[in-house]
Amino acid sequence: MKFINKLSFRIWFAINTIVLTGVLTLSGLYLHRESSQLENSLKNEGITSANTLNAAIGLYMLRGEYSKISPLTYSLQSRPNIAYVIVRDKEGTTINQKGETSIDKQHLMITKVPLEYFQEHVGEVEIGLKTKALEEQQDRLLRDTFFTAVVYSLLSLIISFLISSKLTAPIQKLIVATKKLTAGERNVEVWAKHEIVEIQELSTEFNKMAQTINDHEKILVNEIEKATRNLSEKVEILEVLASISNSVLEDDIQSIEVMKRTLISIKNYIKADQISFTLINNNERLEVFGLEQNENLSSLELKMGDKTINAAIHKREVIVRNRLHANNMSYYEQLLYYDGLRSLLILPIIAKNKVLGTLNIASQQQDYFSPNVIEKLSVFTNQIALAFDRVAAYESLQKSAYYDYLTGLPNFRLYKNSIQEALEQANKQNKMVGVMFLDLDRFKMVNDTFGHAAGDFLLQHIGKLLISCLSEKDVVSRIGGDEFSVLLANISGQEEAIDIAKKIMKALAAPVIIQGCKLHISASIGISFFPQDGTDVESLIRHADRAMYRIKKQGKNNYGIYSTYEDDNMANPIVLENDLRKALERNEFVVYYQPKIDVEREMISGVEALVRWEHPKKGLITPIHFIPLAEETGLILQIGEYVLRQACQQCVQWQRLGLPPIPVSVNLSIGQFMQSNLISNIQRIMNETGIQPELLEFEITESMSMNLERSIEILSELQKLGVHISVDDFGTGYSSLNYLRQLPIDTVKIDKSFMKGIPNDRNNEAIVATIINMAHNLNLTVTAEGVETFDQVQYLRKHNCDNIQGFYFRRPLPAEVFEQEFQHILNDIQKVTKIPI
Question: Quick one: pLDDT at residue 13?
Fold first, then answer.
């Protein structure tokens, strides 16, 4: 019995299937065979009956004695299973018929027997056999066979049930165990020993599977926890890196503030006991900025000879001191040691192959800095280097934007801001402010005689001399060339300003030695006062300038105070405004065009339209003398529309004359820019003149972007017209680093103040290169203004500046002169391109 139970389930299933199939098959074969035999018996009965009378009927048929056939057919028809008998001759004609042929064909079996007499065919006998008895026999046979098959099938099912009962219980246990495994239970096991081999194997494999899933799940959980920890560390590092980067994205970034934020971010990440940041200053000394408990910065100066920091800076080494001790330490290490610190890590900060300083992290624990910790902390140095490089670039940019490159004095932009602040303060306190305008006498003679280097030296000397004559509250600025201006903030009266002017003239009287020659320098000084000579910056500067020119005309080397009686009509706002209105009516404004040069493609890439005023009495007047009043009175809107129309018409006219399509750029004033109908006016002029949109460019200044949201809206509408947008005087505005990436613009124009001193001024070189790279990274083109020397052209070519504009190629020209000079300009460009960079 045990052997039978241990038989393979597959064998049991095969045996049961064979038995059941055999029963059904044999039953079917038996039923078919017996039914066929009954049918054959009935048919043979008819054939035998017919054959017994075959010879006699055949003889009578041959003799034609048909009357003698009837008794014979009657004898056949009288038999129990014969329904009718029909005798036909060989032509098929019925000779004799006994019985009813109308019986339902379904209950008849028809048999035809040929009539032959001594092998001669004489006809046939058709016998209709009754099948009722046959059908009854077949029905009995079917019932008996069916009963037998059912009995054997039941036996087979009983056997199957007995087998399945042994299989169902363990499978049900496996199903329950599987549901538990699916529900999350892991310590699931089923009884592996069973009588059926397959069940035993399945149970064994199930237990192995459950154990494997449990093991793999533990491995997966461990890997997930490990990955989560690593991801968390990466996120923390990215947050610190982002914090360092964000510290230099603000409008007014300061290196000290960036250092503080950097140290706080790193300290929050590593949770070290003390962090210090070291930078090398320009005066060849080290200044260590440490983060105190209250998160304020403290500083400490070290000598350059400190061997530990010196190794990190000059040898670019990572310094690790995991066991600081009192012996054989540098001064910096001693400071840390006596503060209770026992581990030190110094990481050099390198940007553009230059060591900016070091990141120093100290801990109270010995052996704190493992290779893993050092690797994590090293990630920060690159970001710190980028941050401080950006700060340095920003500070250099700010310095160039607000300070004169030669003398280091505030430039005109910063100077005007200082005057505005002084005026606001004086207005509140009811004080007086003085503005001096100073121009050196015969400075051009110094340049022509001794060269520009001597002239530059003299300007630097004058700047220092003016500072020595002023108090701390006063501001001196180099306006341009040999012109200086002085802000006398919060003076008591005109006498104080006159005393300062005399002091300056006395200081200038001292000879200056240049190339072995004693030079005696003098200056003409004009003075205006707030509030009597003007209440705004432009008026005070303009009036001081006019007072200075009066002194120039009177013999130079003196000072003078502005007087309204000696001013000419051009200085009188009312007269000037009246003349401006007449100029519009009389078409006295003309448009000049200054070419923009694409040196690499040897072509004129465009022209800038610049307005001039042909005054009937005073001749050609440049915009600086009338544009401020035009903006103040609103006349700039009519002037601007006139310039735009003229520029568009001229662009179309040049194409008709056979010149290639030349894009023309037009300056938009702040008044025009903020017009509600600006877009419709431009669209109207473009339609009326027929200019192609891609040949028209509008130049805006950075000051127009103070309302950034409104500026973006206006510029987007302009770009929908198909025109181009450029930013003029780029790098000198308040938000150049913030708004550039947001405004929909195509080009930036580097302000001409940055071209001064190139290629000798390294700060300006760095700024120009930075602007070009930054613009190209933003898919913007770059135009450099104020290019006056070949060296400047070569520098811009070297740094892939797209377009060059300035006196080196051409000053602004009337339209007809530009047409005449067109080919000459192209020839000049080709001469430049033949010279290698």
Answer: 63
